[in-house]
Amino acid sequence: MIVRIGEFQAAPGQAEALKSFLLSLSEYICASPGCLSYEVLCPLDEAGRLLVIERWESAEHHRASVQAYPSDKMQDAMSLFAAPPTGGYYTLA
Fold it and tell me: On the CB side of 8, how many CA atoms lie within 13 Å of its CA?
């Protein structure tokens, strides 16, 4: 199992819309082969920054899910981001 932690910064005035978009991905991601869980977190002290914690059977499963997501839907969401998302893969200690 791997954990994918993604960090997102909302464009000015788009924090709620970005949160709604990330939450809307839950059904798609959780139905993807190899997905074990998906959570969206909002830091208490930093509006507009969001974290997504995903657990996958493997990094390959995560990458396949990202590749299969409709590109037109992702393009529609690009205006919500202040910068490209960042993230990494982790294992449990």
Answer: 27
Contact 6, 54 (CB under 8 A): yes
As a whole number of angstroms, the longest Cα–Cα distance in the chain is 38
Judged on CB neighbours under 10 Å (0-12, 13-18, 19+), 11 is middle
Contact 64, 33 (CB under 8 A): yes
- Write out the H or E segment, with its range, that includes residue 88: strand 86-90
Q: Taking 90 as the threshold, does the pLDDT of residue 67 lie above it?
A: yes
Distance (Å) of CA 4 to CA 14, 16, 73 = 24, 22, 21
**Model pLDDT for residues 22-47, shown as the tens digit of each residue:** 999 999 999 999 999 999 999 999 88
